[in-house]
Amino acid sequence: MQLSEQALLRAYRQMKLIREFEERIQREIMLGQIPGFTHIYSGQEANAVGVCEHLSDKDYIVSTHRGHGHCIAKGCDVKGMMKELFGSSDGLCKGRGGSMHVADISKGMLGANGIVGGGPPISVGAALACKMRGDGGVSVSFSGDGSTNQGTTFEAMNMAVVLDVPQVFVFEDNGYAENTGSSFSTGCDDIAVRSSSFGFPVFSADGTDFFDVYDKAAEAIEHARSGKGPAGVYTKVDRFYGHFVGDPEGYRAKGETEYLKEHKCCLKNFRARTLEAELLKAEQLDALDEDVMAEIEASVVASREAPRHDGSLVEEDVYASYA
Amino acid sequence: MPDKTMRDALNEALHHEFERDPTTFAIGEDIAGGRGGTGELDCTGGVFGVTRGLLTKFGEERVLDTPISESAIVGAASGAALAGMRPVAEIMFSSFIGVCMDQIINQMAKFRYMFGGKSKCPVVVRFVCGAGMSAAAQHSHTNYQMMTSVPGLKVVVPSNAYDAKGLLISAIRDDDPVLFFEHMLLFQTSCEVPDEAYEIPFGEAAMPREGDDATVVAFSNMVNVCANAIDSLAEKGITCDLIDPRTTSPLDEETILESVEATGRLIVVDESPPRCGLTADIAAMVAQKAFGALKAPIQQVTAPHTPVPFAPELERAYLPDAEKVKAAIEATLA
User: Fold this and answer.
1) Which fold has domain B206-333?
2) How far is B139 from B156, CA to CA, in rounded Å?
3) Backbone phi and psi for residue B266, each to the nearest 5 degrees, phi listed first
4) Min distance B20 CA to chain A CA atoms (Å)
5) CA distances to B227, B244, B313, B329 from B301, in Å
6) DSSP for residue B297
């Protein structure tokens, strides 16, 4: 599928924005600015962006503990997200949720999720809402390879077929379910084949290649949006860092992540492809790089100065009403 | 006697029992780590390192890394227990109990009763519980107070390394399902722990402080918070019994009642939300059985009725601390 120059630039900027957000928060964690458990999406940006470029605010996504990329790709405000990770009362979720619970319902982003496999059933429900309203919306659940082994994911796949809802299951296989290789923890040879046995088409893509993900996601989303029921996208991809920030990564061979950053980088891949085909100019991409760095820097400066909680609002927002 | 961290004390308990009883085995996510990876095996030992070294010592047949499948982990462990094994399962963070709730509350807890006492299910399920690391709403709950309400389960909440080792050994040797909750702030805390194996019986409270003016009952890490609060009241001449029940089911009612009979004042402290919880349970028990001894209203110190918040300032407001405990003790003396 040929994208316009404007669409190419937008896709690159989104991927770069995710990458630099993730690189910067690792530094801020080391500086003690960001508390809690944080999971980094670097290396997987082509998946979030390749899928979400087909979606609008009327469509829904649910995400995972490794959710920053999906949030940004779906349009969550980067400054609000950064403030959230800093624990500011001015964060996107008022500092109540943090890294694993970023959400923005107005953007159709129904939340990162701290529970592996927590998301797919919720996404099926959002797809059901789209179908009942007949508004043409679709819902996409992002899951890792780990999530594909949860009963909740199996139940969601079956129910999406039974209820015939516009649901897209995106499975990003980054090779590791936490500290265990997916080749060990997943009993089948091919997650796409296993998923498709539930009764919907699953399109496999190279998750380090934006264009491949974009094209396969287009097919899956069109299938769901046109009323043919659920569909899936399975991608093989690599995470550049540990399960969480601070993970010693003893389960990976020495030099593995360095190799991946050099040879499996979706940003490098995108740049090389678009320059070689003369679709974009290096100066255009360089300008976007600078633009993104400035946006990330501004979000960190704003987060450092953002208001903090004093503890008085700890009991707010448990319920919508207290009658 | 050497000082050991709670992590090492728990690890020792597992080694003792795995050597003693060939029917024991461990099952859970990343309890060894590295299966299917490109690096080292046994590099993780569970999310806080408690099971480290078990794979190397006891082999892949008894130390089973699994997919992320909590229902299947707990169900397989209790099925193996019904079939004669003695598994020690790990469910990482206790919030994930939500994923495997059926296997715990409808299956393992009820087998013996439903089967007319003809079965036993000697399974231990270990969890990391509690707040204090900004791990937010799906990685920070206590959950043990909910599980205490389920007949058929035994529930263990150690507050220090010594108790943790003895209680885990008892849990593994017990013939009933035992849920074992390890507070995330305690893994690095240490105290004297013997090298040899020893049991601490269930339903037998410890009393880490003794005093005359009030009785403080607390669970898990709140025992340490309360000890600090009580120590800081010494300068005002106030002394308290501090009771650590160590197991919430069975519960050592006798030690609590004896203490309240002597002091006439009760403060119950837990970091769970307040409704239908342990503090209310113990307050009701004392009100019913020792009403005549009470000289002041019972005080409960708990987290508020909210999920656990992320921002550190909110999490501090959420958690009971020494100041809140001191205020509650002084309120009973006012």
Assistant:
1) Rossmann fold (3.40.50)
2) 19
3) -135, 130
4) 29
5) 14, 15, 19, 10
6) -
CB contact under 8 A, B67 and A98: no
Comparing CA positions, the residue from A36, A40, A67 lying closest to residue A52 is A67
Nearest to B181 by CA among B155, B207, B154, B217: B155
Nearest Cβ partner for A179 among B34, B69, B95: B34
Q: Judge: A185–B139 Cβ closer than 8 Å, yes or no.
A: no
Which parts of chain B have pLDDT scores under 50?
Answer: none
Which amino acid does the sequence have at B276? C
Tell me what ipTM this predicted complex has: 0.92
Q: Does B185 touch chain A (CB under 8 A)?
A: no
In the numeric block, which tokens belong to residue A41? Answer: 């999406």
pTM of the full predicted structure?
0.95
CB B192 within 8 A of CB B215: no
Return the closest-CA partner of residue A271 out of A207, A204, A208: A208
Going along chain A from its start, the domains and CATH numbers come out as 5-305 (3.40.50.970)
Q: pLDDT digits over B159-189, tens only?
A: 999 999 999 999 999 999 999 999 999 999 9
Domain boundaries, chain B: 3-192, 206-333
Strands (E), chain B: 3-5, 24-28, 63-65, 86-93, 124-129, 154-156, 178-183, 190-192, 206-209, 214-218, 240-244, 247-249, 266-269, 299-301
pLDDT at A257 over 80: yes
Same fold, B3-192 and B206-333: yes
Tell whether the model's pLDDT for residue A225 goes beyond 90.
yes
Average pLDDT score, chain A: 97
Mean pLDDT of chain B: 97
Min Cα–Cα distance to chain B from A231, Å: 23
A2: confidence class by pLDDT, cuts 50, 70, 90: confident
φ/ψ of A104, rounded to 5, equals -150, 95
Give the model confidence (pLDDT) of B9-57 as tens digits: 999 999 999 999 999 999 999 999 999 999 999 999 999 999 999 999 9
* 3-state secondary structure at position B216: strand
pLDDT at A116: 97
**pLDDT tens, position by position, A261-283:** 999 999 999 999 999 999 999 99
A chain contacts of residue B306, beta-carbon cutoff 8 Å:
314-315, 318
Q: Judge whether B62 and B87 are in contact, CB under 8 Å.
A: no
Give burial (CB, 10 Å; 0-12/13-18/19+) of A77. middle
Sequence letter at residue B189: T
* Secondary structure (DSSP) of B59-88: -TTTEEE--S-HHHHHHHHHHHHHTT-EEE
CATH topology of domain B3-192: Rossmann fold (3.40.50)
